[in-house]
């Protein structure tokens, strides 16, 4: 096989409950991931060495060296297989960069699946999931897709049933936010109050809303403990969230560590209207309609 193409979705977190800071610098989470129809493509072609090029939206903001998560994934897979392999990776980018939608994680998951195929390793999904968890907390979910709850760092996943499709709009912000900085700001805001940090619990009404496919209920139960930190670091996101609510969004939330904002729509037509309305305001230049859940990393 001389070339393999894998399609990988973005994610939004419909519940992100953040526990206390752990000794290893991470936080225990209850992280309800939902994969949405904004996709990066990772193409893996035969090559002597491991390289990456990036095309498409926001390509100039993606590193091309060992910082690139797709390169790290290819190297980790070759190490796991115990051999020296080469691959020329091409990332066709549609997921906002540093936007809280797991774009880098998607590319890492895509590279794992594509190289497993290109190099004829035939590793089972469970092995790839283990390598994925070492690459980053969000990478296992990018492999799995659908809707799932992640505990621990977010890497220990259980699939969740959903009763239908949900329709979303994602308002892309100018410039990204660093995930580590947003978690640190969350800790700083918490330290400034004497309130005890509750141990994260999966929300029963959220589960019910997902299971019944009821967008109105889901909109009411969206939560993100990182949102206050993202708003503190990027105060103008409050206007973005407000603009979505004014245009009839059933729910408005910062996506993960932000700064992308996610809006839940009543149906596909409403999502298109909302996207058009938001892109004519001054809160965002790019508003992308999408639906979920969609599958994780798949060879196309
Ligand atoms: C915000 C989310 O996107 C929600 O899904 C994730 O929790 C972040 O996942 P990610 O980008 O894959 O993050 P990682 O690459 O594993 O970690 C980046 C940094 O985020 C912080 N981090 C991440 C996950 C976690 N459970 N607790 C943390 O405190 C740590 O400072 C870590 O150094
Ligand atoms: N393949 C990649 N695509 C995008 N960014 C990458 C990639 N590899 C490494 N990065 C680096 O990772 C940083 C975070 O990018 P990414 O798009 O993964 O953020 P994110 O969507 O906020 O992540 P998450 O939602 O998982 O916290 C970028 O600033 C970039 O320097």
Automatic annotation (TrEMBL):
Domain GHMP kinase N-terminal: 68-146
Ranges where the GHMP kinase C-terminal domain occurs: 206-280
Name of the featured protein: 4-diphosphocytidyl-2-C-methyl-D-erythritol kinase
EC number: 2.7.1.148
Species classification: Bacteria, Bacillati, Actinomycetota, Actinomycetes, Streptosporangiales
Keywords: ATP-binding, Isoprene biosynthesis, Kinase, Nucleotide-binding, Transferase
Positions bound to ATP: 96-106
Source organism of the structure: Nonomuraea guangzhouensis
Family affiliation: Belongs to the GHMP kinase family. IspE subfamily.
Pfam families associated with the record: GHMP_kinases_C, GHMP_kinases_N
Active site: 11, 138
Membrane-spanning parts: none
């Amino acid at each position: 096989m001389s070339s393999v193409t894998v399609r990988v979705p973005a994610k939004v977190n419909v519940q992100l409950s953040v526990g206390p800071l752990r000794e290893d610098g991470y936080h225990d989470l209850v992280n309800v991931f939902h994969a949405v129809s904004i996709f990066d493509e990772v193409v893996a072609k035969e090559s002597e060495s491991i390289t990456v090029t990036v095309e498409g939206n926001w390509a100039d903001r993606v590193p091309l060296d060992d910082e690139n998560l797709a390169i790290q994934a290819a190297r980790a897979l070759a190490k796991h297989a115990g051999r020296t392999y080469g691959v020329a990776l091409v990332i066709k980018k549609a997921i906002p960069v540093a936007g809280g939608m797991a774009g880098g994680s998607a590319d890492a998951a895509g590279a794992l699946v594509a190289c497993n195929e290109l190099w004829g390793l035939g590793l089972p999904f469970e092995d790839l999931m283990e390598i994925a968890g070492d690459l980053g907390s969000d990478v296992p979910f990018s492999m799995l897709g659908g809707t799932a709850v992640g505990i621990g760092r977010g890497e220990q996943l259980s699939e969740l049933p959903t009763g239908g499709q949900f329709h979303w709009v994602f308002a892309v912000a100018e410039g990204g936010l660093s995930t580590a900085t947003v978690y640190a700001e969350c800790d700083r805001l918490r330290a400034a109050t004497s309130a005890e940090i509750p141990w994260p619990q999966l929300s029963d009404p959220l589960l019910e809303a997902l299971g019944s496919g009821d967008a109105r209920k889901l909109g009411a139960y969206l939560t993100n403990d990182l949102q206050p930190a993202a708003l503190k670091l990027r105060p103008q996101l409050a206007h973005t969230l407000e603009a979505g609510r004014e245009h009839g969004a059933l729910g408005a939330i910062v996506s993960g560590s932000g700064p992308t904002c996610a809006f839940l729509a009543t149906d596909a037509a409403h999502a298109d209207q909302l996207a058009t309305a938001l892109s004519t305001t001054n809160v965002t230049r790019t508003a992308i309609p999408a639906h979920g859940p969609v599958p994780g990393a798949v060879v196309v």
